[in-house]
Design brief:
The complex is a heterodimer of chains A (about 300) and B (about 375). With about 300 residues, chain A is α/β, with parallel strands linked by helices. Chain A has helices spanning about 1-15, 30-40, 55-60, 65-70, 105-120, 140-150, 170, 195-210, 240-250, 250-265, 270-290, and strands at about 45-50, 125-130, 155-160, 165, 165-170, 190-195, 220-225. Chain A has a single domain, classed as Thiamin diphosphate (ThDP)-binding fold, Pyr/PP domains (Rossmann fold), CATH 3.40.50.970. In chain A, helix 1 (about 1-15) packs across helix 2 and helix 1 (about 1-15) crosses helix 11 (about 270-290). Chain B has helices spanning about 20, 30-45, 60-75, 95-105, 120-125, 150-160, 230, 320-330; strands spanning about 5-10, 50-55, 80-85, 110-115, 135, 170-175, 175-180, 185-190, 190-195, 210-215, 245-250, 255-260, 265-275, 280-285, 290-295, 295-300, 310, 315-320. The chains are: A alpha/beta (about 300), B alpha+beta (about 375).
Chain lengths: ~300, ~375
């Protein structure tokens, strides 16, 4: 799953440079352990909300990779029929409430789905991923308050990659750790090494189990680095060196591979087989997306709230 | 004798791990860590510390202290000179603590105070060499650092740093556990636990069912954390030469209720309790797993590595705050001649004659009638 996200993002990075992909893309590479470590604890009852950097969350929650690629290419076969693009990929059938172009747009959404799960007694948990920039938004703070007051099965995952677009979080976040803010809302807050799949998985597993049992919300803060710029085309004059260091020393895929082969849980050839399977899947997704038609004129009046 | 220099290293990440979620551990606010340092600065000044070396961080602790110093300067109220140890990369890992402590040692710190939990104390101990350390609790599971008012710790550290209280008898060397797996080694100040978990993960150990073997340098009956398991069954004091080890097994006949973490009191089965002799290598039974040092998973080991644990007598030298202040009372170090009206902005007070650089200043104060302790020593 982490490999699928990495390859998907690396490929979108390459394809975007050709000019064939419309709109903007914000890539998730480097942060895979967060999406996968959290979502591997979720099931069909659960919902997630995401950010403008949402491809990883979509893949981790099971959204079809082919449909996602088609959506990014603006094709009729896309998850949202090619009308949403990268920042609005959604698949309600998979519990994926959508990538979200609004910074801080996700947290209120999961308060809604978490409340629904609580009232219906489904045992479902809702998770929102948001960035260090969104951690300063009123919507995020209000949602944490609401989730705590109503004791909702809601998990707030702050993905702190160090920069809100180009502004360092050391300049924009008034507390040293976003997780510290949890105390003000009466919920647990935990800082996690976001490059370490096992740490993320373990913490998320505890938080989600607690929420399912009626224990209420948790704030998890992942600390890591995104490998690409804020958006594709970002010159990244605001940072230097840290990406090379992260890729070389901290990378979640490398660490995962080293660890599971060390313990004998998987062999190198098991991992190679997964990598090959993923490469084929991504090739196929891109080929199919390129071959698919754009939405037709008649589609202009479908998928809208108003009937024409 | 050179300047009386004290180093203070504060871990911005202490009190933030998963035990907030799986137990009722508290969050230790950054603002309070910064306040503690300010309270220490007041105490340092009161007992004549000249210079303080302070670690820097991205977490806002050093920035907060810096702002407070600027405010004080405007108010013409003095603290000792504070040197911020900046100019080197901050990695936001334990290496930052190691780097800061090494710089303090090189710069001639006579006492190094660390603010953090058991993990921070362990890392500080690894770098402190022969410089006495004083560990103050701002973490989660604190068997090693003292939960104590920072002002008092600051007074004690200052009295040792100035030489007013001689180190003999108030600075004691503690034990250390060393664990070796292949070519890797870690040390622990309190306990080494062997866990059946396979990964370091979120580091903390809070489920005794995952622990198979436990080694303790000391096990106090009133401890929190893994050492509490043996603290009730076979207590070992910090000053005793031996340690204690046991196997942990759910089916073991001896069971004890142990406070493994804040808000977590668990029944634990224990067998094969044995005192640890210094220097002997005790083998780890398990073929593979994770070794936790002072409650944090740190070292993974695989089949064939056969880690060993050894009790060493050459741990760090630690300041005994109570002993320092008892000695201070005996020597009358904080007594003041009649009529002195001490404030933090005044010159450093001579102490016990060892730092009598302003000799005679007090006696020149006319109209003096009462002995007083510094009335601002507890002012944050």
């Amino acid at each position: 799953m982490m490999r699928a996200i990495r390859d998907f993002e690396e490929r979108v990075h390459a394809e975007f440079a050709t000019g064939e992909i419309p709109g903007f893309v914000h890539l998730y590479a480097g942060e895979e352990a967060s999406a996968v470590g959290v979502c591997s604890n979720l099931d069909d009852r659960d919902t997630i909300a995401s950010t403008h950097r949402g491809h990883g969350h979509c893949i981790a929650k099971g959204v079809d990779v082919g449909e996602m690629m088609a959506e990014i290419y603006g094709r009729k076969t896309g998850s949202c029929h090619g009308k949403g693009g990268s920042m609005h990929i959604a698949d309600l059938s998979k519990g994926m409430l959508g990538a979200n172009g609004i910074v801080g747009g996700g947290p209120p959404l999961i308060c809604g789905t978490a409340l629904a799960a609580k009232i219906k007694g489904t045992g479902g948990v809702s998770v929102v991923f948001f960035g260090d920039g969104a951690s300063n938004q009123g919507t995020t703070l209000e949602s944490m308050n609401l989730a705590s007051v109503w004791n909702l099965p809601a998990i707030f995952v702050a993905e702190n990659n160090g920069y809100a677009e180009t502004t360092s979080s050391t300049w924009s976040v008034a507390s040293d750790n976003i997780a510290d803010r949890a105390a003000g809302f009466g919920m647990p807050g935990v800082v996690i090494d976001g490059f370490d799949f096992f740490a993320v998985h373990e913490a998320a597993s505890e938080a989600i189990a607690r929420a399912r049992q009626g224990g209420g919300p948790t704030l998890l803060e992942m600390k890591f680095t995104r490998y690409f710029g804020h958006f594709e085309g970002d010159q990244q004059t605001y940072r230097a060196g840290e990406v090379d260091h992260a890729r070389a020393e901290l990378d979640c895929l490398k660490r995962f591979a080293a660890r599971v082969t060390e313990t004998g849980e998987l062999t190198r050839s098991d991992l190679d087989a997964v990598d090959a399977e993923v490469a084929t899947m991504i090739d196929q997704a891109v080929a199919e997306a390129k071959a698919a038609p754009p939405p037709a004129e008649a589609d202009l009046l479908t998928d809208v709230y108003v009937r024409y | 004798m050179g300047d009386a220099v004290v180093g203070v290293v504060a871990n911005p990440l202490s009190g933030r791990d998963i035990r907030r979620l799986v137990t009722q551990a508290s969050v230790f606010p950054t603002a309070e860590k910064a306040n503690m340092i300010q309270r220490m600065l007041t105490a340092f000044d009161a007992v004549g510390v000249h210079r303080v070396l302070l670690s820097t961080d991205l977490g806002g602790i050093s920035a907060s202290v810096f702002r407070a110093i600027e405010r004080r300067r405007r108010q013409d109220v003095r603290w000792p000179e504070v040197e911020f140890l900046d100019g080197q990369p901050i990695r936001q890992t334990a290496q930052d603590t190691v780097d800061a402590v090494r710089r303090m040692v090189t710069a001639g710190a006579r006492v190094i105070i660390c603010l953090g939990g058991d993990g921070t104390a362990r890392v500080t101990a690894s770098a402190v060499g022969e410089v006495p350390m004083l560990a103050l609790s701002t973490g989660t599971n604190n068997a090693f650092p003292a939960v104590m008012e920072a002002t008092i710790a600051g007074l004690a550290a200052g009295l040792v740093a100035t030489g007013a209280v001689p180190a003999d008898g108030v600075v004691t060397r503690v034990k250390l556990l060393e664990v070796r797996a292949g070519d890797r080694a870690e040390t622990a100040l309190i306990d080494v636990a062997v866990s059946t978990q396979r990964h370091v993960g979120t580091r903390a150990v809070w489920d005794p069912a995952t622990v198979t073997q436990l080694f303790c340098a000391f096990a106090e009956p009133d401890a929190i954390g893994l050492s509490s398991i043996l603290g009730q069954l076979s207590p070992v004091a910090r000053h005793e030469p031996h340690g204690v080890t046991a196997r942990i097994a759910p089916e073991a006949p001896a069971r004890v209720l142990a406070p493994i973490a804040p808000g977590l009191v668990m029944p634990v089965g224990v067998r094969d309790i044995e005192l640890m002799s210094p220097q002997s290598a005790y083998p780890v039974d398990a073929r593979a797993g994770v070794i936790a040092v002072d409650g944090e998973r740190e070292l993974t080991f695989e089949a064939g590595e056969r880690p060993t644990v050894r009790l060493r007598a050459d741990g760090p030298r630690c300041v005994d705050v109570s002993a320092v202040l008892t000695a201070s009372a005996r020597l009358g170090l904080l007594r003041r001649p009649p009529g002195v009206r001490p404030t933090t902005s005044c010159t450093h007070r001579p102490l016990g004659g060892t730092h009598d650089r302003h000799g005679g200043a007090e006696s020149s104060d006319p109209g003096a009638t009462a002995e007083r302790l510094p009335d601002d020593a507890g002012d944050p």
